[in-house]
Design a protein that fits this description.
This protein is an all-alpha fold. The protein has 2 domains: 88 residues; 84 residues. The longest helix is centred in the middle third of the chain and has 89 residues.
Length: 185
């Protein structure tokens, strides 16, 4: 996540400290090396050239602390930015989780409806199956018009069972279709 950077002034102070520390460090090292390589005083050739090490040591000891302080300021501002970014990411994750829970609840309701419709369709199918033998027995004892009426009733019961099963399937598809697009939000 991209989060706006804050504390620009603090970062600027960090850069100023780093640049100042580098300049002090380079000044001390360059000054010391120039003193070591020059012949600035009598006795230099007899091994008394220790005067050049002082500026090098002072440059190192004076240049490193500002560099460290500037780096620490950058570190602190980066930690703050990463913390805010993590908070924004966690908030987005929480919202997504809440949406997923709501979609799961809706999907459960649709599943329960499908189960009820399937049970009704099964009961109607069982009724149609029970009615078929009765229709066959009554056909033996009845006239042709009675047989046709009984067969038509059995066919109607079977058609009702098929319609109930189709409605259950449509309800399941509608429930899933309604719930799935919401999962991406």
């Amino acid at each position: 996540m991209n989060v706006a950077q804050r504390y620009g002034g603090l970062r600027l102070v960090g850069w100023v400290l780093i640049i100042f520390g580098i300049l002090v460090l380079l000044g001390g090292v360059i000054g010391g090396i120039s003193l070591l390589s020059a012949r600035p005083y009598p006795g230099y050739e007899q091994g008394l050239n220790m005067i050049g090490w002082g500026p090098i040591l002072v440059g190192i000891l004076s240049g490193i602390p500002p560099i460290i302080m500037g780096s620490v300021l950058h570190l602190l501002t980066d930690v703050e930015q990463q913390s805010r970014s993590a908070i924004v990411l966690a908030e987005g994750s929480r919202k997504s989780s809440e949406a997923a829970v709501k979609n799961s609840e809706a999907l459960m309701k649709h599943t329960e409806t499908v189960m009820r419709n399937t049970e009704i369709a099964m009961r109607n199918s069982e009724s149609a199956l029970k009615a078929a033998p009765v229709a066959a027995v009554s056909a033996v004892n009845s006239t042709a018009s009675d047989v046709a009426t009984t067969a038509a009733n059995a066919a109607q019961n079977a058609a009702n069972a098929a319609t109930d099963a189709a409605n259950a399937a449509k309800s399941a598809v509608a429930g899933v279709t309604a719930a799935v697009p919401k999962l991406g939000r």
